[in-house]
């Protein structure tokens, strides 16, 4: 017996009410990070000579952040902060020595198992999670197969890519990052040979009883040191430049021919496999870190040599991912984010004198220093379901903001047992909040507090205070003599009182302010000092240092 019409109508209205009250479908996430890409390299940020139509399309169809900031100007600490939403000093992923990144797969340091990544939290909430590309956050702790730092121990269901990073040594003929080490080795070798020559002359002239064994020993030592160094260079590539699929070696050494196409296919395959369930894909490019490479159809096409070719191939790969989302009907409900791990590496010059670094636009400095060129990076977000097209936001935002943003959208709670330094971006992106929640941001050079950014609530200025600055080579925009800028000792100049800039008037950081030129000078420094004291009080000085020399050195028993 059918219900009366009035009752049927009431039931229908209740059903519609329940359906409309349902929570929106959980979004998917595609997080894309380039390596060493400058903010001045993209068309949507003002470049007119490189072709980046796909990232530019993202900017047109979403939101462009113009004051988006890397949590560190160097690969390893930047990526640790991105994944965890926390300054890298909190996890011990910031170095106290001159080496700020991992150089060997067989090092024992890495992202601690105790840290929580956005991948781990989303995996716990039913998401499929995958990483394609660069990791650079360690592999193993005590045994070669314990993989305590491996991506799949940090919430990624699958991993296909480089456990370390792309280095010049990884591509035959591209040079070596150990050029400075070669100079260090040359000194003792020359000293040993000079010693042998002196002893040989003394023996020849009969000026002393010099046994032949004493003459030969320095020569043998010089030969041993030289042979050992060249053996190190020879075996570095097969030992460290490897491609992994999960916990297995997929290719050793990794071949660059078709590499971007291979990783792009892997990313698209991940999307296809998980098109009917919520997913998070982290596509972490090897481009445009040296050694540069590009497929034949991109090689020689750009106006900026090998670097430009790599940028345009990277953009092609982004386009393949965006097209796959469109083809699979996923674009509307997918949060797509594009950035770079830090600014362009302006020191990079090939042995032939070709510039292999990119453009940081109007900003000073680059990779490995906290001038704006080292930390101001592209930030583009496309999420058609919730965000308007073509918006531009100049508020301070950070890589660390992705952690709480992703968790909030996925319905996952933030960890309550630790400090999370990032802020949920969605109120800013939606326009329901007009000001960044980052009143202060702290810029670290490895483990050393280098600079502080203050965005007062009244918006009267954008202050940046420097406690020390890197010593650039004369007339240069970087530290060419050391390949990257270091963070202490003779490599920096300390400032007491600190340098003060107003980035709203001087984004290129050319004109430090003084008490005479800025009436608020002393008040600004006092407010920043108070913020630094409060921030420092939240740090744990006992956190294990993952980039200590004992964790950085090569350990044969950890070699894959």
Write the topology of this structure:
Layout: H1 5-21, E1 28-34, H2 53-60, E2 63-65, E3 68-69, H3 75-84, H4 118-124, E4 128-134, E5 158-162, H5 179-205, H6 212-240, E6 243-245, E7 248-251, H7 259-273, E8 279-284, H8 305-327, E9 334-340, H9 372-375, E10 379-382, E11 391-393, E12 397-398, H10 402-410, H11 426-430, E13 440-445, E14 448-454, E15 463-470, E16 492-502, H12 521-537, H13 549-552
Parallel strand pairs: 1-8, 1-9, 2-11, 3-12, 4-5, 4-8
Antiparallel strand pairs: 2-10, 5-6, 6-7, 9-10, 13-14, 14-15, 15-16
Helix pairs in contact: 5-6, 7-8
Structure explained in plain terms:
With 560 residues, the chain is an alpha/beta fold. The chain has 2 domains: 30-167 and 241-438 and 540-558, Alkaline Phosphatase, subunit A (3-Layer(aba) Sandwich), CATH 3.40.720; 179-236. 31% of the residues lie in helices and 15% in strands. The chain contains 13 helices and 16 strands. It has helices at 5-21, 53-60, 75-84, 118-124, 179-205, 212-240, 259-273, 305-327, 372-375, 402-410, 426-430, 521-537, 549-552, and strands spanning 28-34, 63-65, 68-69, 128-134, 158-162, 243-245, 248-251, 279-284, 334-340, 379-382, 391-393, 397-398, 440-445, 448-454, 463-470, 492-502. The protein has a 10-stranded mixed β-sheet, with helices on both faces. Strands 13-14-15-16 form a 4-stranded antiparallel β-sheet, covered by helices on one side. Strand 14 (448-454) and strand 15 (463-470) form a beta hairpin. Helix 5 (179-205) packs antiparallel against helix 6 and helix 7 (259-273) packs parallel to helix 8 (305-327). The longest helix has 29 residues, at 212-240. It is globular and about 120 Å long. It starts with a helix and ends in an 8-residue tail after the last helix. The mean pLDDT is 91.
């Amino acid at each position: 017996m059918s219900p009366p019409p009035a009752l049927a109508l009431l039931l229908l209205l209740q059903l519609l009410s329940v359906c409309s009250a349902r929570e929106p479908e959980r979004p998917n996430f595609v997080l894309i990070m380039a390596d060493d890409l400058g903010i001045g390299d993209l068309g949507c940020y003002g470049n007119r000579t490189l072709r980046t139509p796909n990232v530019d399309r993202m900017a047109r169809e979403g939101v462009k952040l113009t004051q988006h900031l890397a949590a560190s100007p160097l690969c390893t600490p930047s990526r640790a902060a991105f994944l965890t939403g926390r300054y890298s000093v909190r996890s011990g992923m910031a170095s106290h020595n001159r080496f700020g990144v991992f150089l060997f797969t067989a090092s024992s340091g890495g992202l601690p198992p105790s840290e929580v990544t956005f991948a781990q939290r989303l995996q716990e909430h039913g998401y499929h999670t995958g990483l394609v590309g660069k990791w650079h956050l360690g592999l193993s702790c005590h045994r070669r197969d314990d993989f305590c730092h491996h991506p799949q121990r940090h919430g990624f269901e699958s991993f296909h890519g480089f456990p370390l990073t792309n280095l010049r040594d990884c591509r035959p003929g591209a040079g070596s990052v150990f050029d400075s080490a070669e100079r260090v080795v040359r000194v003792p070798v020359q000293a040993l040979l000079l010693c042998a020559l002196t002893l040989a002359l003394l023996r020849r002239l009969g000026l002393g009883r010099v046994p032949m064994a004493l003459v030969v020993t320095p020569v043998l030592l010089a030969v041993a040191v030289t042979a050992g160094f060249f053996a190190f260079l020879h075996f570095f590539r097969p030992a460290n430049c490897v491609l992994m699929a999960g916990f297995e070696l997929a290719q050793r050494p990794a071949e660059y021919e078709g590499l971007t196409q291979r990783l792009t296919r892997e990313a698209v395959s991940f999307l296809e496999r998980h098109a009917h369930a919520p997913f998070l894909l982290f596509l972490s490019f090897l481009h445009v870190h040296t050694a540069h490479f590009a497929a034949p159809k991109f090689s020689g096409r750009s106006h900026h040599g090998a670097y430009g070719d790599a940028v345009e191939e990277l953009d092609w790969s982004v386009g393949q991912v965006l097209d796959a989302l469109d083809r699979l009907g996923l674009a509307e409900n997918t949060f797509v984010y594009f950035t770079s791990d830090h600014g362009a590496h302006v020191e990079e010059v090939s042995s032939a004198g070709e510039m292999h670094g990119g453009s940081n636009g109007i900003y000073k400095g680059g990779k490995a220093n906290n001038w704006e060129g080292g930390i101001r990076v592209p930030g583009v977000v496309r999420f058609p379901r919730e965000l308007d097209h073509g918006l531009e936001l100049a508020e301070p935002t950070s890589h660390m903001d992705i952690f709480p943003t992703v968790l909030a959208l996925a319905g996952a709670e933030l960890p309550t047992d630790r400090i999370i330094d990032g802020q949920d971006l969605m109120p800013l992106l939606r326009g329901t909040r007009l000001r960044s929640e980052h009143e202060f941001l702290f810029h670290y050079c490895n483990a050393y507090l280098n600079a502080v950014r203050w965005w007062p609530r009244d918006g009267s200025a954008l202050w940046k205070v420097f406690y020390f600055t890197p010593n650039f080579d004369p007339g240069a925009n970087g530290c060419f003599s050391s390949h990257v800028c270091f963070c202490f000792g003779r490599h920096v100049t300390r400032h007491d009182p600190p340098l003060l800039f107003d980035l709203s008037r001087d984004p290129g950081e050319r004109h430090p302010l003084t008490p005479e030129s800025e009436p608020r000078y002393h008040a600004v420094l006092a407010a920043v000092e108070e913020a630094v004291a409060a921030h420092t009080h939240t740090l744990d000085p006992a956190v294990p240092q993952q980039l200590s020399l004992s964790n950085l050195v090569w350990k044969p028993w950890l070699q894959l």
